[in-house]
Amino acid sequence: MGKLAEYRQILKKLDDWDQYILAESRLPGPRANLELVEAVAAEGDINKFRRYLTYDANQAPYGSALEFLPVCGVVGLGRLLAEGKTELLAVLRSYASDPRWRVREGVTIALQKFGDVNHGRTFKGDGGVDLW
Prior knowledge:
Layout: H1 3-13, H2 18-24, H3 34-43, H4 46-52, H5 68-82, H6 89-94, H7 101-118
Helix pairs in contact: 1-3, 3-5, 4-5, 5-7
């Protein structure tokens, strides 16, 4: 079993994810736990993602473990976006200019999820969705 599958199984068993996520985030440190980000995005729901996105740059500054929560939130929005919830594009877009580079990178991962299921059809002109 790979790390992603392991994390997903653990999350399914937990009532409160936050302490586990923060402990396993690898932050502060040079490399966040991207497998855990993917697991949270796969197993979470809109309410969890919205709550994680309430952690702004003052509450969860760059380099802190708390910064991991909004990263998970934006990547989770990407999963929902890929599932057809295109109304979340505006929310996702607002995080594209976040002062924390990890959150901005999370937006990139989120848009990749959307692009993977839309096969590059991302603009109105070719039958896709207007991103911006």
